[in-house]
From TrEMBL:
Residues 217-238 are annotated as: Disordered. It comes from the Bacteria. Residues 160-234 form the MDMPI C-terminal domain. Pfam families: MDMPI_C (PF07398), MDMPI_N (PF11716). Residues 20-152 form the Mycothiol-dependent maleylpyruvate isomerase metal-binding domain. This is Uncharacterized protein. Gene3D superfamilies: dinb family like domain. GO terms for molecular function: metal ion binding.
Amino acid sequence: MSDAEPAECRDEELRAAVLAAPERLRALLPGLTDEAVRAPSALPGWSRGHLLSHVEGVAHALARQAERALRGETVDMYDGGRPARDAAIEAGAWRGADALRRALADALDRADAAWRAPGPGDWTRPVRYRDADLRAARAAWWREAEIHTADALLGPGPADWSREFCRHTLDFLEPRAPAGTRLTLAATDGGERVAHGTGRPLTVRGRLTDLTAWYAGRTPPTAPVADSGPLPPLGPRP
């Protein structure tokens, strides 16, 4: 895309990517069984039921950011804050597959409607999420949908992430660069080179999807390799 192309073209491409992401998760729901719901997810301490209940909750929460923003309002992500969010995940995790499937489908429907509604001039509307704008909330839903679909261990994984999504996620995760390190992430399957932080230079190489999974705190299919020594510890997620 050239710099001369209007911003709304980029917004439409991003909207398409954001709308497509949760559809990969939706396609997995018909095969969900009670046994599968109780099985572990990729997140330590969380069953697949916990993970899918979280996706349900964050879908509603971010959709609400969009709905209220279009009305000129801002609202907290979760009524009751983090404690209420955590309690809802724990309670929802123990539902049977049928109930969880219906609830998650409803949440994905709401998210789909919410992210179809904004027009080209709406993306700078303020939201309470990170005290940012509607564009940031949309990007958050993109990350939640793509990463947690992989975390569900139902088929799609990091290797299925698009290059555009990987580049976006690496940029978002810039604060994870280790202190005192100029960390360069170099894709061995493309031309991407992303540099974060300042200090001692260190290059980590791998496929772009593997670099992104590692930087997001996940276990990639093939671990990236540092040019010298082991992979560095990363800072907290932003």
